[in-house]
Design brief:
Chain A is mainly α. Chain A contains 11 helices and 3 strands, in the order ββααααααααβααα. In chain A, 37% of the residues are buried. In chain B, β3 and β4 form a beta hairpin. The chains are: A mainly alpha, B mainly alpha.
Chain lengths: 271, 411
């Protein structure tokens, strides 16, 4: 896992390696099953909408739709299990503290406050993030919580009779409520937040490809993870600002293009 | 200089293509799974009567009880000289009385492509040419009888509909006696049921003790009689097989058939039936499952619970009656077990019935709904703020910058 620490070998030409092969596979499993689950699940929830009925008709009826929903659910469950194994191997076998970077810290609250100040005009610089920003942490942990609810609720709905043997009867209608509401929340979050930061944000428009390539362009990394960028550059004994021909100029209107602050912050937060 | 853009694209294109390739492969695999599972359905078009446990549809009841008490009339002799096909004049009569699916206009039945084409001429028996008068649409307006209560009943019989009815080989006189004009047809729901019961003894015996049949003897004609369930127009002459996809008793249509009365607020208020049984059923898992099953009747999976799976059809009882299949958790669990093997009481306890969850009825679900209502909105609002924040700041900055340049030029 050459992507876990802020080491010099993370640099790969004009890029910084950010995701290893497991994370990339997990993401592909996750988003393909997520899309399948959304387009087969939402019509079942909003079944009185004309478009849902048309769409269910395209699939040849709700039975086929439910079959595909169940199939995609198993793909999502596999990616969840894969990730759990990945975490355990990383922490216990390889003894790398890397996953603990995802845990929320007090610094995240301070970052959020700093960002809010920036948004409303009380400050002129947004927060600088390390390996994971508070938004990425929230995304990740929310997916974790969401998956627990979706998988738990989904399994109850998939095996209602077995579930009633273990759980009280009300768990079945409760699972339906939780499963369908949490699904709408997940889809809404993806459409609003993920769509913006992974596709529409000027740094990455039309699409942030790093989750597929595993690599982030240097200039983008400097914007998005200024603190870790500084650490990596320091580890590689490279200047913070690369020569012109290495790094194409970043459009000036991008937020957070504040060179000196990076250096201060590096001192402030050694890892 | 090496083009950066090009570098990024060429390097990641493979990965992206790979990603989409994998996703496509996953989709294809899922499609195959779906096909695999959908396949068996087409092999058993009549799978509403799948003998497998867990798939017991209403069809199974039919098979068990259907022949009980039915006398096969001698008039089914197909060599009879009076056998006829629906003729041009009866066919043209269809337009007058309307077609069979105009039941009050309120609850249209789910038609189907495989349903017998109503206008296709079929053989039927009319030994005494009764339809020469009763099937003549030009006489339809003249032929009416007054009921004691003042309402008038049309004596017009749509030969076209009759030729598609399950009784088309029962001559008119097997139901109406040899001298139909000698007896005054009482034309009440009870008399009708009695007439059907003269052949379908078993169904009649059950029906007359049921919540729909018992009140008839007291002259209450609000509850259903045979044809209210067996014909979308409550017409004794266009009854089709119960599992014909166009039948009002077909699993996909039965909820709408019951809804003729049970979705009628005024009628239900009269009997103190408070639950919105039709709407709650249609929103339930079973209801969605049946209403969203495939359009092609040969491929439909209709093994899900309809009104009659839970309540019975001819023997429907008050839900407060201890013998009702939905009364008490023990009975209810047995009802679920028809299709959910090994369900047990705990499973039945989780059934909301026709009621909404509320603080008294499965409160966990009620509070769960409330929690998720608030929770989803709060989190989504946070998400909107997370996007709107940088967005707003960038917009403001841009406006400011646009205002500044002239100043800079002055400097």
């Amino acid at each position: 896992m050459a992507t876990s620490g802020a080491t010099a070998d993370r640099i790969d030409g004009d890029f910084i390696r950010r995701f290893d092969i497991h994370q990339r596979i997990q993401h592909i499993m996750m988003f393909s099953s997520f899309i399948m689950l959304a387009i087969t699940g939402l019509p079942m929830k909003f079944s009185d909408w004309g478009i849902s009925q048309w769409w269910i008709g395209v699939w040849g009826g709700i039975d086929n739709l439910r079959m595909v929903h169940h199939g995609a659910a198993w793909v999502m469950i596999s990616s969840f299990v894969y990730h759990a194994i990945y975490l355990v191997v990383c922490l216990v076998v390889l003894r790398r503290p890397f996953p603990t970077h995802m845990l929320p810290r007090f610094q995240d609250v301070k970052d959020l406050i700093q960002d809010v100040k920036y948004w409303v005009g009380l400050s002129d610089e947004p927060a600088k993030y390390g390996r994971f920003s508070y938004r990425e942490k929230f995304d990740y942990l929310a997916v974790g919580w969401g998956l627990l609810i979706m998988i738990g609720g989904g399994l109850i709905l998939m095996f209602p009779v077995t579930a009633a043997k273990i759980l009280p009867g009300w768990a079945i209608p409760f699972a339906l409520v939780a499963h369908s509401d949490e699904a709408v929340l997940a889809v809404g979050w993806i459409l609003i937040v993920h769509m913006y930061f992974a596709h529409l944000h000027p740094l990455v428009f039309p699409m942030n490809k790093s989750i597929f390539t595993g690599k982030v362009p240097l200039h983008q990394y400097r914007e998005e993870h200024a603190l870790e960028y500084a650490q990596i550059m320091a580890a590689a004994n490279l200047p913070l600002e690369p020569a012109e021909e290495v790094l194409s100029p970043v459009p000036a209107e991008l937020p957070g293009f504040q060179e000196p602050v990076v250096q201060e912050a590096r001192v402030a937060e050694p890892v | 200089m090496r083009s950066r853009r090009h570098f990024i694209c060429s390097n990641s294109r493979a990965a992206i293509l790979g990603g989409f390739g994998l996703a496509l492969a996953a989709l294809a695999a899922l499609g195959l799974i779906a096909l695999f599972y959908a396949g068996p359905a087409s092999a058993h078009p009549g799978n509403t009567c799948d003998p497998e446990p867990g798939h017991g549809g209403p069809g199974c009841h039919v098979e068990v009880t259907t022949t009980t008490g039915v006398t096969i009339p001698s008039t089914t002799d197909t060599t009879s000289p009076a056998e006829t096909t629906s003729t041009a004049d009866t066919a043209s009569a269809t337009g007058v009385n309307g077609s069979s699916v105009s039941a009050g206009g309120r609850v249209p039945l789910g038609g189907s492509s495989l349903a017998s084409n109503p206008s296709a001429p079929r053989t039927f028996v009319d030994k005494n040419n009764c339809l020469s008068c009763h099937g003549d649409s030009s006489l339809a307006d003249l032929m009416t009888v007054q009921r004691p209560d003042g309402s008038s009943v049309s004596l017009y019989v749509d030969g076209n509909e009759f030729s598609n009815s399950v009784h088309r080989f029962n001559d008119c006189t097997t139901c109406h006696t040899d001298k139909p004009h000698d007896v005054e047809t009482p034309l009440t729901k009870l008399s009708l049921a009695e007439k059907c019961g003269s052949c379908h003894q078993h169904e009649y015996d059950q029906y007359i003790k049921s919540v729909h049949g018992a009140p008839q003897a007291n002259g209450n004609s609000d509850p259903a009689t045979c044809v209210d369930c067996h014909s979308s127009t409550s017409n004794p002459h266009n009854i089709v097989r119960v599992l014909d996809p166009s039948a009002s008793t077909y699993p996909k249509n039965i909820a709408q058939t019951c809804a003729k009365c049970h979705n009628d607020q005024k009628l239900m208020d009269k009997y103190g039936i408070v639950e919105k049984v039709y709407d709650s059923y249609m929103n339930s898992f079973h209801g969605k499952s049946i209403s969203l099953s495939g359009k092609n009747p040969a491929l439909q999976q209709l093994n899900t619970a309809t009104c009659v799976n839970c309540h019975g059809s001819h023997n429907i009882a008050l839900v407060s009656d201890p013998n009702s299949p939905v009364a008490g958790m023990d009975n209810l669990a047995k009802t679920c077990e028809q299709c959910h093997p090994g369900a047990g009481v705990e499973f039945a306890k989780g059934f909301l019935g026709h009621k909404e969850a509320d603080p008294a009825h499965i409160p966990q679900v009620f509070w769960g709904e409330k929690f998720f209502f608030v929770f989803t909105r709060v989190v989504l609002a946070g998400g909107v703020a997370l996007v709107a924040g940088p967005f707003a700041r960038k917009g403001v900055d841009r406006i400011k910058r646009r205002r500044k340049p002239p100043k800079k030029e002055e400097e």
